[in-house]
Amino acid sequence: MTGVVGLLAGIRDVGRDRRRGGWSRFAYSPAELTLREWFLAEASRRSMDVEIDRNGLLWAWRRGIGGSLDDAVVTGSHLDSVPGGGQFDGPLGVASALTAVDLLDARGVAPTRPLAIVVFPEEEGGRFGEACLGSRLLIGDLHPDRALARTDADGITLAEALTAAGLDPSRVGRDDKTLSRISTFVELHVEQGRGLIDLDRPVAIGSSIIGHGLWRLTVTGQGNHAGATLMTDRRDPMVAAAAIVVAVRDTARAFSGARATVGRIQPTPGGTNVIPSRVDIWLDVRHPIDAVAEQIVTSILERARPLAASEGCEIALVKESYGGAVDFDQALRNRLAAVLPDAPHLDVGAGHDAGVLAERMPTAMLFTRNPTGVSHSPEEGVEDADAEAGAAALADVLEELLR
Ligand code: GLV
Ligand code: MN
Ligand code: MN
Questions:
Q1: Tens place of pLDDT for every residue, the chain, 403 residues?
Q2: Are residues 334 and 390 in the same domain?
């Protein structure tokens, strides 16, 4: 089997999560390292020059006239996943990029400019809690010391994970040499909503991404014995956390266009017969206007304080990461629209490395229809014909940009 469907079939069993269901492919885990090797092998098979940059991004290059690597058109996506996620979020963009190269070869397109495929590590923040870590390190939006000190659920730092993967943590950081080579970036991604189902189209062009922040709210009380502590004698942070989760939902509902989610909550020490001493609640807050996202978090904090106090608990809030709202480059979008006149234009609620790179260069996105409209879940899907239509659309766009 060839094409996107054949490529994805080759990695379907990598990182399957028997406990959660779906796929767990955390950055620099054995599963993601296997996918990175798979990508490098597939790119080499296509006579692309492969390299791993200072920040752990994978690159595969087709040189331009005279062997040039400057003024490159770049496409690609990520291979890591959320815990128990779907198989397409990330890998669809990488497999579509490899297939687009095959299609350009089959069409006999001889690029005058270089073409590269990039794979970004830790787009999801699923291991180290820092969304779009690789692209943010590349553009210098994330301080290397902060990134390297981030730990995973087992207390392993990014620095340790990089070292274990054969990378040198001391070289991590803004990479102007690599950035200066890229003229344009286009990321293809599975759609993570119902836009294309409702419009009955296979492929869309991205218009904008809403702002996206992650915060950690820590509720502290008194750890104690579940049997020996009377209900009237407790300072239980889990009870406060439960009320705060409801307040998060209610606060977001009061702001038009807002999304706020608590998808992860961790009691310490986490014993069935133990009143926790502390509960960490991770907040994912998004809004098309960055200032409003901040306001939502402020409102959540204002509501959370008395809820915690009424249980005799205290709270502290830490911002873990923020990616601002993005409008994709209008001139580039117009070029994509000329190549794909039937593709609708969609505003998207999910974050992407393309949104990070948009701060530094003209950037665009393509979306392939997802028949379930569900994502960050094993139920995420892509029909075979749509997968190939997406890759063909990407090839059309690259052909135009390589002119
Ligand atoms: C990444 O997919 C995100 O939007 O969280
Ligand atoms: Mn995702
Ligand atoms: Mn993604």
A1: 689 999 999 999 999 999 999 999 999 999 999 999 999 999 999 999 999 999 999 999 999 888 889 999 999 999 999 999 999 999 999 999 999 999 999 999 987 899 999 999 999 999 999 999 999 999 999 999 999 999 999 999 999 999 999 999 999 999 999 999 999 999 999 999 999 999 999 999 999 999 999 999 999 999 999 999 999 999 999 999 999 999 999 999 999 999 999 999 999 999 999 999 999 999 999 999 999 999 999 999 999 999 999 999 999 999 998 999 999 999 999 999 999 999 999 999 999 999 999 999 999 999 999 999 999 999 999 999 999 999 999 999 999 999 8
A2: yes
Counting every residue written for the chain, the total comes to: 403
Which residue segment(s) compose the domain that 278 sits in? 211-323
Could you give the maximum distance between any two Cα atoms of the chain, in Å? 79
Measured over the CA atoms of residue 36, residue 37, residue 42 and residue 44, the dihedral's sign is: positive
* CB of residue 350 inside a 6 A radius of ligand 1: yes
Please tell me the distance between residue 10's alpha carbon and the centre of ligand 2 in angstroms. 21
What spacing in Å lies between the alpha carbon of 308 and ligand 2's midpoint? 32
Contact criterion met (CB below 8 Å) for 367 and 203: yes
Answer left, alpha or beta for residue 312, where phi above 0 means left and psi between -120 and 50 means alpha: left
Residues 308 and 217 in one domain: yes
Determine whether the shortest distance from the Cβ of 187 to ligand 1 is under 6 A: no
Q: Which residues surround ligand 3, an ion (CB under 5 A)?
A: 89-90
Give the total number of structural domains in the chain.
2
Query: Residues within 5 Å of ion ligand 2 by Cβ?
Result: 89
Q: Where a domain ends, among 260, 295, 323?
A: 323
> Which CATH number belongs to the domain containing residue 235 in this structure?
3.30.70.360
pTM of this prediction exceeds 0.90: yes
What distances in angstroms separate CA 285 from CA 262, 280, 322, one per listed residue? 9, 16, 9
Q: Quick one: which atom of ligand 1 is closest to the CA of 284?
A: 5
> Among the three residues 307, 323, 339, which one is the final residue of a domain in this structure?
323
CA pair distance 284, 314, nearest whole angstrom: 21
Same-domain check for residues 202 and 220: no
Kindly state if the Cβ of 124 falls inside 6 Å of ligand 1: yes
Instruction: Give the CB-side neighbour count of residue 184, counting CA atoms within 13 A.
Output: 22
Best mutation site among 124, 190, 320 for ligand 1 pocket (most ligand atoms within 8 Å of CB): 124
